[in-house]
Amino acid sequence: MKALTINLPEQFDKKEVLLTISAQLYQQGALSANQATDLAGVTMNELIHHSLPESDSLKKYLEPGKEYISTEEWIEDLKAQQNYKEFNQNEFEKFASDLDIQEPLEDLLSQLTK
What we know:
Blueprint: H1 14-27, H2 33-40, H3 44-51, H4 71-81, H5 89-99, H6 105-112
């Protein structure tokens, strides 16, 4: 492994500089994700969060400092944040019955394209 010494002016934060360098090397394919996180000393979430542009809507879901154990845990957390309520088949069928739609499905669908 090669060593690199960089003298940073006082106003620069060492962790932020390492994160920026490792994110760039990761995006260019010079480092694997594990190598980049090791170099920067951050979690995968922090690396990805830092790599995304501010306009990317995914950025708000990748909280720095929070590492999810599994995809399922992440999904459950998002459901809780968004107050998600699961689909209820019985409620839907009652709603559809109450609407009492008589037109054939094909006619209804064709009206969507007009």
